[in-house]
Amino acid sequence: QKDQRKVDRFILFGLAAAKEALAQAGWAPASEADRLRTATIIASGVGGFPAITEAVRTVDRRGVRRLSPFTVPSFLVNLAAGHISIRHGFKGPLGAPVTACAAGIQAIGDAARLIRANEADIAVCGGTEACMNIVSLGGFAAARSLSTSFNHRPDQASRPFDMLRDGFVMGEGAGILVIEELSHALARGAKPLAELVGYGTTADAHHVTSGPEDGDGARRAMEIAIAQAGISPGEVRHLNAHATSTPVGDLGEIAAIRTLFGVDSAIAVSGTKSATGHLLGAAGGLGAIFTILALRDQVAPPTLNLSAPDPAGDGIDFVANQARPMGMDYAISNGFGFGGVNASALFRRWTAELAGAGTRGAHS
To answer: Active site includes 242?
Structure first.
């Protein structure tokens, strides 16, 4: 109750998800040395937009002197990371990517770079978002980004790669990971869920709200992540697609997939926003969690509401409507955003055989 009066909901989501992630990871640094080596990188695409909207309403109705002293700290994007750092005493690097819907993946990539550069041993990273209000919904609707054809059937509105798709369904929440240098994790008895082996990020330099039809920037982001891991595209068996259910966005990602992986390949492509909606800056963190769990459980999640696949995706396996057990060692997760930003994170399935290969790589 005390926190809720002082901060926007995106901060509360971040605090709650970070608490769960840290508990699962078993990380609660007791020494100053450990606190100094723990980074906090939490993204948000919009931050405290509802808090800003409410502040404007307060000024209009009651005057500027009625603003709370917590107004500005409640909406600053970096305050999700700040509150998590303060709550848990983490004194390592702190950051807050604000790269629209690619921000969650970029937070994971930034955290991995800090670990690989020996600036941290462990990082809490991902994204958080809570911007469901009349201004944000109205703004995205004005940009023709939201689905409007399924208002009477909302459970069918988010339908990535389907011919009837007409926009995304906004969601909110947080997806937070704990990633850690492998030898550090094993030394304290932690059990990794997956290994983060590659990260790529690019710019389209094309358009403010849409990527190029050929998906070139998306392809390059995936290529960079795969090259960093030292593997070939054919070894990647699963892709958690950005796939927001917009007509143009899905086409660009389809083109990138076709160019990089080919058609009739072994890769299974899942559009999990069909189940969760689009969490904007938190989407990348949530997508990474789906990807890690797919590797752990050896199950590709379904793309729901896929009744009439877009012919542009002929030959691509979209895991339509039903989860599928399958073997996979590598899986990749995508996040693309307004402004032409693309980011991809590549994960490897964790097995006991990897325990003897401790490096400065990051592990989830």
So the answer is: yes
**CATH number of the domain within which 74 lies:** 3.40.47.10
215 and 156 in a common domain: no
Angle at 88 between CA 99 and CA 276, to 5 degrees: 45
User: Do residues 198 and 282 both lie within one domain?
Assistant: yes
Tell me whether residue 278 is one of the annotated catalytic residues.
yes
- Mark which of 153, 187, 221 sits at the end of a domain: 187
Which position among 88, 184, 238, 278 bears the catalytic label?
278
Residues 6+ apart with CB under 8 A from 153: none
Domain that holds residue 158: 9-187
pLDDT band at 358 (very low <50, low <70, confident <90, very high): very low
Domain check: are 169 and 215 in the same one? no
Has residue 17 been placed in a domain?
yes
The active-site residue out of 83, 238, 242, 363 is: 242
Condensed to tens digits (0 to 9), the pLDDT of residues 15-63 reads: 999 999 999 999 999 999 999 999 999 999 999 989 999 999 999 999 9
**pLDDT score for 360:** 46
**Partners of 324 in the β-ladder:** 300
Residue 177 exposed, middle or buried by CB count within 10 Å (0-12, 13-18, 19+): buried
Question: Which of residues 131, 154, 187 is at a domain's end?
Answer: 187
CA dist list (Å): 159 to 9, 105, 167, 246, 353: 27, 22, 9, 9, 39
The one catalytic residue in 101, 125, 131, 363 is: 101
Count up the domains in the chain and report the number: 2
Q: Of 45, 44, 343, 46, give the one whose Cα is nearest residue 204.
A: 343
Closest CA to 193 of 331, 319, 90, 81: 331
Residues 52, 183, single domain; the answer is: yes
206 is catalytic: no
- pLDDT of 105: 99
User: What is the pTM for the complete model shown?
Assistant: 0.95
pLDDT at 353: 76
